[in-house]
Amino acid sequence: MAKLTRLRVLRTQRGFWSATKFAQKLGIPATRFLLAEAGRPYRRLRGDEPVKVAEALNVEADWLFDEKGYPLPLDPVA
């Protein structure tokens, strides 16, 4: 699954239908998030923003943004 699809699909699966509201909830400028979600290489998330997004979606940041590892949740259910 491509990064663009992965990010958008996970966001909507987790109940965040609006990308703008999701970005605002995380304190990320909506325009930057929308461009990052659209795969625009010149407008990537900065600093700790990728980690904030991954934590909100309950997946590993490496899997979400770098296509490494597995889509394991941060807190596995026992």
Q: What is this structure's SSE topology?
A:
Elements lengths: L2 H11 L5 H8 L3 H8 L11 H9 L3 H6 L12
Helix pairs in contact: 2-3
The general outline is globular
Percent of residues in helices comes to 40-55%
Low-confidence stretches: none
- Strand segment tally: 0
N- and C-termini, Cα separation: 27 Å
* SSE string: HHHHH
The fraction of residues in strands falls at under 5%
Question: What is the residue-averaged pLDDT?
Answer: 81
Sheet with the most strands? none
Helical segment count: 5
C-alpha-based Rg, rounded: 12 Å
Structural class: mainly alpha
Description:
The protein is an all-alpha fold and 78 residues long. 54% of the residues lie in helices and 0% in strands. It contains five helices and no strands.
Brief synopsis:
The protein is mainly α. The protein contains five helices and no strands. The longest helix has 11 residues.
List keywords for this structure.
mainly alpha; 5 helices; about 0% strand; about 80 residues; single chain
